[in-house]
Design a protein that fits this description.
- The complex is a heterodimer of chains A (about 220) and B (about 425).
- Chain A is about 10% helix and about 55% strand.
- Chain A is built from two helices and 13 strands.
- A seven-stranded mixed β-barrel of chain A has the order 1-3-4-5-9-10-12. In chain A, strands 6-7-8-11 form a four-stranded antiparallel β-sheet, with no helix packed on it.
- Chain B is of the alpha/beta class.
- A seven-stranded mixed β-sheet of chain B has the order 3-9-8-7-6-4-5, sandwiched between helices. A three-stranded mixed β-sheet of chain B has the order 1-2-11. A three-stranded antiparallel β-sheet of chain B has the order 10-13-12, with helices on one face.
- In chain B, helix 3 packs parallel to helix 11, helix 4 runs parallel beside helix 5 and helix 4 crosses helix 9.
- The longest helix of chain B has 20 residues.
- The chains are: A mainly beta (about 220), B alpha/beta (about 425).
- At the A-B interface, strand 3, strand 9, strand 10 and strand 12 of A face helix 1, helix 5 and strand 5 of B.
Chain lengths: ~220, ~425
């Protein structure tokens, strides 16, 4: 946290895959006040992001975010978000990172440390996520052309205490494409219980890779 | 942490043209449906001079191979070689067609003045339906006011809530909207990929409809119909083919891609339009008399619309007669297509998987495609860029339509202009 009320995290890599999955599945995950964005009629978007955080109030840690893409909250006169998401499961490699994110952002966490290993293979970066010693997900994202960006995203959270919104600016070098070169393997594990795995398309229609950048959270907004 | 080299301007509005696209203005939560208007207006104001002015530039002439176009950026009228209009056979401005339309307007006046199921069916509509049924060698046909109307009306006429519609992921919006209107469960399979269709359709119970297009409008590639038919039949699905861009062009008799593959009878439902090859307006479905009677009763987009203007119907009948009487038009079109494919290949210009008269000139550079299109127009060609979200990111292109009316000299000029601009912009070597 700094004097301007914002919270900043530095990362070396953040890879995201966006996958088609049934809107019925998306609605099972989402709270009633959120609407899934549909890629096609009946097809919503599941997003998995793996972060390698290098700078934060709680040190170096890995984080995986499982989310559904939802309608952003648009207000005239305010900066338009690039997109919005509802993270229904977040997991970190350290207890300190987990407690920090729960306390500050009300993010729904897997309550044990996970394992996360990044590996680079040519122009692709993979993240292997494990929990309880078992594989959870293997995500591979390939790169394309790189350019510096600064994009606003919205994250919606909900827990027993209320509903929240965080405006998040992602800065850094970005590669984004729809070449369908990436891959996701979701393993049968309690971590993935919200998903009907056979109905999540295993090739991302969009691959997003950000590196050497900064994630900045505005102060949390409580929704009425 | 390495510093970010360059940051787009952060303002209180969507002022960074390149940061956003149409997809960012579709969804927006909140409590006022007007919330997206101002952000869109801010963005569009910046998008227009950056290339979006190239869309909807008004023509002040017939869509022949040469057109007069008002440049929306400069306001000037310019004379351009037309590579954008459909009119694949170049018949819409033929004297016989114009004469038929003029005679019809003298006889019937401007419009049909009614729904086709009440007072809006004129004898000329029935004549057109019979003419297209005969051309397609089907028992009967039914006419819709537009191609869009034909897809939404037909699909929603035969499919219901609880049924299953399987669509190619590159399906035209009218097909997708038809499935939405039918309230059926909609499943998309990867483009032209029968293996993915197999994966999606396997084990699905109940009524099933697979919808494909003869030629896909953004890539110009032809449906792999034999494989699609095989998978569909094996899983008990009916097949609808939308031949919007292939009727009157493909097959020994010009009936379409189904005829081209010898699968006319294996395909259950045949849909087409009059706006592409004939350069007119309207859509149609043909098949058995029972099918057409049913669609007449339950095709809501037609049922609740005014019928096609009689002058259009009369002009289409005249156009259809030309197409039947002059198969050399098709031959000329395919000769032009072969010429362009050869010349583009020689110039190193990538047209993807197109094997039809629809050719995407792949730029594959979202930030340069508008500059490329603008320069090409400045050098005398009328065409439009296509970019995300109409096509995937980094798959931006210039979409061109070849007509039988083009001369080889015109096409050669087009290749040279496109090639030189792509080279100057570093898209090709």
């Amino acid at each position: 946290m700094t004097d301007d009320g914002k919270t900043r995290y530095g990362y070396s890599n953040a890879i995201s895959g966006f996958f088609e999955f049934p809107t019925e599945n998306a609605r099972r995950i989402l709270p009633s006040h959120l609407e899934p964005v549909e890629l096609h009629h009946g097809t919503s978007i599941f997003a998995m992001t793996a972060f390698d955080f290098t700078e934060s109030m709680v040190g170096h840690y890995g984080e995986v975010v499982m989310a559904v893409i939802v309608s952003p909250l648009v207000k005239p006169g305010e900066r338009l978000p690039k997109s919005a998401f509802y993270p229904y499961r977040v997991a970190t490699t350290t207890k300190a990172a987990r407690e920090h994110a729960i306390e500050r952002w009300h993010l729904p966490h897997w309550m044990d440390d996970i394992g996360m290993v990044f590996s680079k293979d040519g122009s692709a970066l993979s993240a292997r996520v494990t929990a309880d010693g078992e594989p959870v997900a293997d995500l591979t994202i390939s790169d394309h052309s790189w350019e510096p960006v600064s994009h606003l995203y919205q994250s919606f959270m909900k827990d027993d205490a209320g509903a929240y919104l965080a405006n998040i600016v992602m800065e850094g070098g970005q590669s984004e494409h729809e070449e369908e070169k990436g891959k996701l393997v979701l393993h049968e594990h309690a971590f993935n219980r919200e998903l009907t795995i056979s109905e999540v398309y295993d090739v991302p229609f969009r691959e997003l890779w950000m590196r050497d950048g900064r994630q900045t959270f505005d102060p949390l907004i409580t929704l009425g | 942490m390495e510093a970010v080299q360059k940051k787009p301007e952060l303002t209180g509005k969507a002022s960074t043209f390149a940061e956003y696209d149409y997809s960012n203005f579709y969804y927006g939560a909140g409590d006022d449906p007007m919330n997206l208007l101002q952000p869109f207006a801010d963005w569009y104001q910046e998008a227009l001079p950056n290339g979006y002015y190239l869309y909807s530039e008004p023509l002040s002439t017939a869509p022949t191979t040469r057109v007069q176009v008002k440049n929306r950026k400069t306001g000037k009228i310019v004379d351009l070689l037309n590579l954008a209009s459909y009119n694949y056979l170049g018949v819409s401005y033929r004297p016989e067609v114009k004469k038929a339309a003029i005679e019809a307007i003298e006889k019937y006046g401007l419009g049909a003045s009614g729904s086709p199921i009440l007072s809006g069916t004129l004898d000329v509509h029935n004549d057109l339906a019979k003419a297209v049924a005969d051309f397609k060698a089907k028992e009967a046909a039914i006419i819709f006011p537009t191609g869009y109307s034909a897809n939404i009306g037909f699909i929603s006429a035969i499919m219901r809530s609880g049924d299953n519609v399987f669509l190619d992921q590159y399906s035209h919006a009218s097909i997708v909207d038809g499935a939405i209107l039918a309230k059926s469960k909609t499943t998309f399979f990867r483009h032209n990929n029968p293996l993915d269709l197999e994966r999606k359709i396997k084990g699905v119970k109940g009524k099933k409809l697979v919808v494909v297009e003869g030629v896909y409008s953004m890539d110009g590639d032809v449906c792999v119909l034999p494989e699609i038919v095989e998978v569909s039949k094996r899983h008990g699905a009916r097949i609808l083919i939308d031949e919007a861009h292939s009727t009157f062009l493909f097959g020994p008799n010009g009936r379409g891609v189904a005829e081209h593959f010898g699968l006319d009878k294996e395909v259950d439902f045949h849909l087409g339009t009059f706006s592409k090859s004939l350069g007119g307006q309207g859509g149609f479905v043909c098949g058995s008399k029972d099918l057409i009677d049913y669609v007449n009763a339950f095709g809501r987009s037609r049922f609740f619309s005014c019928n096609l203007a009689p002058m259009i119907a009369a002009g289409l009948i005249a156009g259809l007669k030309i197409v039947e009487a002059e198969p050399e038009l098709r031959a000329k079109l395919w000769s032009n297509v072969a010429f362009m494919r050869r010349r583009f290949a020689e110039e190193g210009i990538d047209i993807g998987k197109s094997t039809s008269q629809v050719m995407p000139v792949l730029v594959n550079n979202d930030s340069k495609v508008f500059a490329v299109a603008e320069e090409i127009q400045n050098r005398g060609l009328y065409l439009q860029p296509v970019t995300y979200p109409a096509v995937p990111k980094h798959k931006s292109r210039l979409r061109i339509s070849i007509s039988a009316a083009h001369t080889e000299a015109e096409l050669e000029m087009a290749v040279k202009v496109i090639g030189s601009v792509l080279r100057e912009q570093g898209i090709i070597r």
